[in-house]
Design goal:
- With 191 residues, the chain is α+β, with helices and mostly antiparallel strands.
- Strands 1-2-5-6-7-8-9-10 form an eight-stranded antiparallel beta barrel.
- It starts with a helix and ends with a strand.
């Protein structure tokens, strides 16, 4: 048993030396995935919503909206790393250039009687870096649906983000039957 453990250790050391040599030969540094995992503090920050103002014809109301990213693909991440993220996406990965599936539940205050206070948006959103790989300024374009019982509406979305993606202004336009509404959200959140 001891001999097998030592030989496995020697083989591992030899493989590591070969890997270091090949990295040294090409002049590239070794690359590893960041290994970011959900933590209780991260979960707590995800509970903080972003404020939203909605403007249907002739009125307006205030609401709160959360952002969840079940799946994200970054098209600018180093090819030696995984380009896929689920739930957590580092700002440089998201705003440097990516496409995500988003889910955004929301709650509206002051809607007319009989109308639903709850809504959920889901769709596809793409991020494009504008200044400094998106860390100073990035743009997002999205499309999807807004479900507000009993109606479903197609949506179009446009966003501008700054401060490493921590703050953004997002505009969404929806069409429910014969009326349209536009909403503006102050998107806050880091991961």
């Amino acid at each position: 048993m001891l001999g097998l453990g030592l030989s496995a250790t020697r083989a591992g050391a030899a493989n590591q030396t070969r890997a270091e040599t090949s990295d040294a030969d090409t002049g590239e540094l070794p690359v590893t995935d960041p290994g970011i995992r959900p933590t209780p503090l991260w979960a707590l920050f995800q509970l903080l919503p972003s404020p939203e103002w909605t403007f249907p014809p002739g009125e307006h109301y205030f609401g709160l909206r959360w952002r969840v990213t079940p799946l994200l693909y970054s098209y600018v991440t180093d090819r030696r790393l995984s380009r896929w993220r689920s739930l957590i996406a580092e700002p440089v990965v998201r705003h440097g250039g990516s496409v995500e599936w988003f889910v955004a539940p929301g709650y509206a205050f002051g809607v007319e009687d009989g109308a639903s206070h709850f809504s959920t948006r889901t769709g596809i959103r793409a991020y494009f870096p504008l200044i400094e790989r998106g860390e100073y300024l990035s743009l997002s374009l999205g499309t999807g649906i807004d479900y507000r019982h009993p109606d479903v509406s197609p949506i179009a979305e446009l966003g501008l983000y700054s401060l490493f993606g921590g703050v953004g202004i997002v505009g969404t336009h929806a069409r429910f039957g014969d009326f349209e509404e536009t909403s503006v959200r102050l998107q806050v959140g880091y991961f």
